[in-house]
């Protein structure tokens, strides 16, 4: 079994060589040995997420320490288990299984946040590509009890972005308190999370989606199942446009996927009475407080919730939607040595859907 797989002594990884700027460098690293409870995974693909950019650029002011030079980033990895560490005999995964790594690479399982299913709030949780070496590399260690099994028949490259973008936006829609037939506004509907969220909402949950994004993303948003598209460029009164499409009332929920502070400022104004804003996109740079008055919240019974990642169960549900063909990832594949260029493209906001790195 485990002993029969021959592993190289060295392998390729992309590291952040100059954190604070857009730069990655390919290095050869030593093959690690799985510790107790861990598995060693030979990764074939990794998605590139906007959160990786935040970590590389050190632009998330709330992180406890600056990203260190030499950090391997990435948190949407898919690959095959090649070695089991000690104390993994009761694990539900084994050598040869295809599994995925998520934003939270592992949680403590014992704190209150873990017990109530708020994985991202675990005080000892390990963010992949920040606290631990991430998925922009050919081999990675992960806790056996926290990897996500990938369903048969789901392509590895297509599965990778679902492990962060897909799970998070699916979890957000579940927390939006919407029912089938309700209107949901998706701010940033044409991005990595947005095009998946639009599909989950319209095709998986029977919601009426109003997609808002740059006009260049109109086709992708409509193809993903949005009932309406509002271009952010060239629309002076977005709230007015949303009201017009919703019988003058506003949407039942707004999902904010962008890191744009202006989008957050506008979000409450798009809602009807009893509506919910779900915050996912992490604002960058200096924090800007949410713009909503207590009177607005009280008189219209507005709820504002935040979502960082989903649970293990939501990850399994997300991948199941994809395996059944309800949700399709819009992506293109690049090799690891193109990672820096991919980040530059992301920085210029030219990216449609997701880029997945082929790690072979
Ligand atoms: Zn992510
Ligand atoms: Zn915990």
UniProtKB/TrEMBL annotation:
Gene Ontology molecular function: any one: alcohol dehydrogenase (NAD+) activity
Keywords tagged on the record: Metal-binding, NAD, Oxidoreductase, Zinc
Enoyl reductase (ER) domain segment(s): 20-357
A Pfam family assignment: ADH_N
A GO CC term assigned to this protein in UniProt: cytoplasm
Cofactors, names only: Zn(2+)
NAD listed as a keyword: yes
Highest taxon of the lineage: Eukaryota
UniProt family annotation: Belongs to the zinc-containing alcohol dehydrogenase family.
Name of this chain's protein: Alcohol dehydrogenase 2
Organism: Karstenula rhodostoma CBS 690.94
């Amino acid at each position: 079994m485990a002993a029969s797989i021959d592993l190289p002594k060295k392998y390729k990884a992309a590291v952040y060589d100059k954190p604070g700027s857009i730069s990655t460098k390919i290095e050869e690293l030593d093959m690690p040995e799985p510790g107790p409870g861990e598995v060693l995974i030979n990764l074939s693909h990794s998605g590139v997420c906007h959160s990786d950019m935040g970590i590389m650029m050190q632009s998330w002011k709330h992180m406890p320490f600056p990203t260190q030079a030499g950090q391997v980033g990435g948190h949407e990895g898919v690959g095959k288990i090649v070695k089991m560490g000690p104390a993994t005999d009761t694990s539900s995964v084994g050598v040869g299984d295809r599994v995925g790594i998520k934003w939270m690479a592992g949680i403590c399982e014992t704190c209150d946040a873990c017990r109530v299913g708020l994985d991202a709030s675990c005080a000892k949780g390990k963010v992949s590509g920040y606290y631990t070496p991430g998925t922009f590399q050919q081999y990675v260690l992960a806790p056996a009890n926290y990897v996500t099994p990938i369903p048969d028949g789901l392509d590895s490259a297509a599965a990778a972005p679902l492990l962060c973008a897909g799970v998070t936006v699916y979890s957000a829609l579940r927390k939006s308190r919407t029912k089938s037939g309700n209107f949901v506004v998706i701010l940033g509907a044409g991005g990595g999370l947005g095009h998946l969220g639009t599909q989950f909402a319209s095709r998986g949950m029977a919601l009426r989606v109003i997609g808002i994004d740059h006009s260049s993303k109109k086709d992708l948003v409509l193809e993903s199942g949005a009932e309406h598209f509002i271009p952010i460029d060239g629309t002076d009164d977005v709230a007015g446009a949303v009201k017009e499409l919703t019988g003058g009332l506003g949407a039942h929920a707004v999902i904010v996927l962008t890191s744009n502070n202006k989008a957050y400022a506008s979000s409450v104004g798009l809602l009807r009475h009893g509506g919910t804003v779900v915050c996912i996109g992490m604002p960058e740079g200096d924090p800007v407080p949410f713009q909503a008055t207590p009177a607005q919240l009280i008189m219209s019974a507005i709820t504002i919730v935040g979502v960082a990642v989903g649970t293990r169960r939501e990850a399994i549900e997300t991948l199941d939607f994809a395996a059944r063909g309800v949700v399709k990832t819009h992506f293109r594949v690049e090799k690891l040595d193109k990672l820096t260029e991919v980040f530059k493209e992301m920085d210029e906001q030219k990216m449609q859907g997701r880029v997945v790195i082929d790690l072979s």
